[in-house]
Amino acid sequence: MAVYLPTLKQLQYLVALHEAGHFGRAAEASHVTQSTLSAGLRELETLIGVTLVERTRRVVRFTPLGERIVAKARRVLREADELGDIARSAGRPLTGELRMSVIPTIAPFLLPRVLPALRSAYPDLKLFLREEPSGQACEGLNHGRTDCVLLALPWACGDVEAEILFGDRLLVAFPRDQALPGHGPVMAEDIDETRLLLLEDGHCLKDHALALCTQPELRGHAAMLGTSLHTIVQMVENGLGGTMLPQMAIDAGILEGTQIVARPVEADRAYRRVALIWRRASPRERDFRLLADLLRSQAPAN
Predict the structure, then answer these.
(1) pTM of the model
(2) What are phi and psi of 164, to 5 degrees?
(3) Domain tally for the chain?
(4) What letter would DSSP give residue 41?
(5) Cα three-residue angle 20-126-91, rounded to 5 degrees
(6) A single Pfam family, by name (predicted)?
(7) Phi-psi group of 196: left, alpha or beta (phi > 0 → left; psi -120 to 50 → alpha; rest → beta)
């Protein structure tokens, strides 16, 4: 008796719809028409004999079984991707496609110096970059949407391997007329958490900044949340409070043209560790370690 199995394309459509929550956006992400995606999903439902998605005019809702099959589909697609990874790992290093997520507090400050060196050393590598917060980046890695992530530790990201690239010092920054007394390092206990302007949840820098402070009961009382370091700097420049900035952002000129003073913090956790991470047991481990070596060679001198 013939056995008909779902195709990878059908599983890709299903996962795309789950991530987008909208047929049009899922079709766009899959580079097909909406009718093609809808037909593929109907064929999948007919094939397995169950309804996976409840369709209404306004809402796309997955059934409980649909949610379970999406989770399994992600694992199947990730395993299929790794078949290609196995073949690539047997050939020349760092060739073909590589999908890497980079967090926003690293991407604009490190990538401009890294990408030219990467193109020069590995011209046959086709790198696809995605900038997203740590939480989303780790979710994408675990779901197989990306192959590796450039982020800052500590940050819980599941069952991953990591190559530490370098340390990046954290500094406290205030408007010149609101800066703390003195000129040397600032003691952690002298930082008023209630006046800190921080990034939104999901950005590891927010957790790193709060970990410096010695009053954990104030962790939820940050004065205001920003969507990017550049937005936060503008808030500080306008006297709304202070913030914590990584050294790499300051070295890249984020404070140029402002009246903001940045000073190091005297604390055990006054730095973050920039790292490249990937799924444990990935067949492309050799590629990732080579990539880590190149990234490390381009590390800013703190």
Answers:
(1) 0.71
(2) -75, 130
(3) 2
(4) H
(5) 120
(6) HTH_1
(7) beta
